[in-house]
Amino acid sequence: MARQAHHSEQDNPLALSIALTQYTNRICHGIEYGEAEILERVTPTTAELLRWWFGEDMMAARGWMNFHAGQRQAILNAIVAHEVLGDVQMGAMGLLGLYQQVAPDALRVTSRQHALASPSNAHPKYCFKMATGTGKTWVLQALLVWQVLNKTAALAEGVDDARFTRYFMIVAPGLIVYERLLDAFCGKALPDQQNMRDFESADIKQFADLFIPEAQREAIFAFVYGNLCCKEEIGQKTTGNGMIAITNWHLLAEGDFADEQDDDSEQDQTPLAVHEVVKQLLALPPGKATGNSLDVLDKRWTRGNVLEYLAELPELLVFNDEAHHIHEVRRAGEVSEVEWQKSLMRIAQSKTNARGRRFVQMDFSATPYNDVGRGKHRTKYFFPHIITDFDLKTAMREGLVKSVVLNQRKEIGALPLEFKAERDEQGNPTLSEGQRVMLRAGLQKLRKLERDFAAIDPDRYPKMLVVCEDTAVTPLVTRFLQEHEGLSEDDVMSIDSGKRVTLGEKEWLSVRGRLFNVDRHISPRVIVSVLMLREGFDVSNICVIVPLRSSQAPILLEQTIGRGLRLMWREEDYADIKRENRERIHAGQEPKSLLDVLTIIEHPAFQFFYDELMQSGGAGMTSEASDGHHSAGDMVAADLCENFRAFDFGVPFIVQEAQAWRQPAVLKVGELPAFTAMTRSYLRELLRKGDHFISQDLQNTALFGDCCVDGTVAQVAGYNDYLSRLTRRISQNWSEELPRTGRICAHGITPYLQTSEAILTGWLDDYIWTQLFGDTFHPLEVTPEGENWRYLLLAPVVDHIVKVFAEALTQQERYLHVGQTQVRMRWLSEVPRLMVRESHSIPSNKCLYTRQGWSAFDGGLERDFICWAQEDALVLAFCKISDNRHGFLRLRYVKEDGLSAFYHPDFLVRTHEAVYLVETKINQQMARPNLRRKHKAALAWCERINGLDASQRGGPPWHYVMLDEHLLHEWQSKGAHLAELLDFARLRSAADNSLQALLL
Prior knowledge:
Blueprint: H1 15-27, H2 38-41, H3 44-54, H4 56-62, H5 69-84, H6 95-102, H7 110-116, E1 125-130, H8 136-156, E2 167-172, H9 175-186, E3 188-189, E4 197-198, H10 203-206, H11 208-211, H12 217-227, E5 228-229, E6 243-248, H13 274-281, H14 294-312, E7 316-321, E8 329-331, E9 334-336, H15 339-355, E10 359-365, E11 369-372, E12 379-382, E13 386-390, H16 392-397, E14 403-407, H17 410-413, E15 422-423, E16 429-430, H18 433-456, E17 463-468, H19 474-483, E18 492-495, H20 497-503, H21 505-515, E19 526-529, E20 542-548, H22 554-562, H23 575-586, E21 597-600, H24 607-615, E22 619-622, E23 635-639, E24 650-657, E25 661-663, H25 680-685, E26 692-696, E27 703-708, H26 712-735, H27 757-770, E28 782-783, E29 786-787, H28 795-812, E30 814-816, E31 821-827, E32 833-837, E33 841-843, E34 851-853, H29 860-871, E35 877-880, E36 891-894, E37 900-903, E38 907-910, E39 915-921, H30 931-946, H31 950-953, E40 958-964, H32 965-973, H33 978-985, H34 993-999
Parallel strand pairs: 1-10, 1-13, 2-6, 2-7, 5-6, 7-10, 14-21, 14-22, 17-19, 17-20, 18-19, 20-21, 39-40
Antiparallel strand pairs: 3-4, 8-9, 11-12, 15-16, 23-32, 24-31, 25-30, 26-27, 28-29, 33-34, 35-38, 36-37, 38-39
Helix pairs in contact: 1-5, 5-8, 14-15, 20-21, 26-27, 26-28
Organism: Lampropedia hyalina DSM 16112
Pfam family, one: ResIII
Protein name: Type III restriction enzyme
């Protein structure tokens, strides 16, 4: 059972998260290599998903499109809590049961015991504490896929597993988040087509290579597309065997106060006025003027029917987005529940009592706590069901969100503590002088960012967000910016909940489209709102926030900051300078640039909120002195030089070999190496005679079934199926180009050996019978020790066979060429600009770009190479390859496990004699296991290019060079030419003895 939380964590409000994370990390150790304990304790479907999401090979193939550490921990903790630990007490494990298993010491706190005994915690309930901008929606979608695939697999086997469901409801706190969720699941709204959306732009479709294994992809698409209901369709739309209902919280609230709009007022904890109480108690007064038109009454009646419909569903999993709105509110020491939570509890009781764990609640929030008290007596009460904690400070340290800095200005520091709008005797508001000063300071910072960012990228448009105290102040701010600061009408956009009512639905869609696409357009430059945009406003270019509001509640301050946390500069070019910024902020120093830095023009009265962030190195300060520094730091654009064509590189790519026929390979099975890593007796210990066991899908390393090895028919069918899958895996993996999407193989396509798969199957069969274990092996024979063919399903044996045949097929591959090969040249100049740091780059007169740069953190060897190439008279041209800009210049190689991957060389160098692909490696990198395989692939590529006519490849031959740190510095110190070193160190043909040794 799980390791108990340490005694010192008893009073920690996050004790459950800490203990569950420790336990999860222990049983998930080695999951990247398919060796984790969790893979044996979950369903085959879940194990397949875990390998797809977190397997080392799959992650490498997808590149950037992977879950980051916080998302990974959230997904694993949820699966462990609900599937692994939830299986222990099937049918009755609520939140208390989870504490008893992983954090029993935390139950010694009396207040926590009382909270867990509440009926609201009787069902499975999990809260994900994840900082704004760290991808909560991706976690939500991954968990939905996990549930759907498991439920589908269980029903196919005639099992009704209560842990899984196909019925979901996703609840948003307001219209902005609601629309964002519709975008994620249904796709973007199509212009001029009411209620029509482009499913191709939905997250689940765009990032399918991450979320869904290939074989299940179409089934998930069909499920989402056919079963999704917007809030107006819940209970009305006919769906298949499942449902994904997306709504805002008003559907779950009962009472006349649940209007269909966002709440722009701050959380008021004062008692209801008398007339409001009377309004809720007395019968409905008739008449449209009282708000009780037939439309309104019909809406209320429909809402009641929807709650009944949800309660009658056989099962339901509810995802609460921005769930800090939902839970208990404390007033004067008493706890009350909001209507949203009350409705969920009624739905939960209808399922939990009747059929066990048929209601599950998953809450997502960056701020899952209630604020109680004021001033020094203010306390945060965290939700007791938090199972994972990826906080803002961690996200900042890892560079997943912008860094936060407070802008210290003398005029703001001198302000009196009045930061609210001033009001006359009639209550009409006017902007206070303090607010005007803060707006001017924010606008000054915005204008500087606009100038500086345009110098390095004219298509980046920083924005300023002004958060007002109430809707009466927003027009005052807009008027001030236009009349006193010279902004045009298009420059300022005001948004609040009344905007939708005022404009009407059609005009609102146009405004909303403009609002959510501000990153792409120069206007608006300033967005003014109250609290409507505090959640779900997922844009990246908010760089300045001016908070003009009266609340000192930390939860609202944190939500305000969250609107600007999403990264604006995601390219790898800016990674070094952003990392340096984070290090400087952590050390208490001012950042040297404002790339992915969020500037807060904050009033001194709110300094207390930021002190904690600053003490942990999560936030910093900037002063007026920083106005003299460039906002982009020392980032400069390296454009094409005036005579760049003289230094350009044309890289030949063979598009098609005219009438090129692949001659069937001829393998000598008897010469293939046997499996010697383990003895047969050792392998026998890994198997248990007569047991059920899970077979491994040889196509994509997923699990494909529960096989019984006792029957004769199962033995024969299993071995044939094994040969078929093994054939397909080898032929697919070796035949296809690895797509940039990261998919290992396209569905149903096997161009390699497609006319001779039977021959490949025959070779595999012969190899298994005669060579695999060094002597005769009968896979269909049943011996006293067990059934022989089970040996073939062990991972080491599978990996060995795939590796041996993959290499043998490549070495035996031959072509018969007829006609002329078609070649396409790709030029480095297709990328007109690189971004480099001035302090870590030098001007170049031998490169097509004006400057050549290197990494600020580990680029010492690259710097030495660039300087030497610049000085060497025998070097005619050179260029450092940008991994993310020159994406077309990549080479495919085969890793140790037999799967394909890509890598980029470091440099291109041209001399009078040749063009060199150069890779530089420091001494510590020389021992990496796949390095030799990269060399082999690069050499093969060069030999193929050199087989072309000189006119087709652009002139001189191509060679590949790997330079280690010691060799480069040794030749340089002796006054040699770099061109001489390149010619000496280049890899020769396969006939060379040194190369033969290298490839062993």
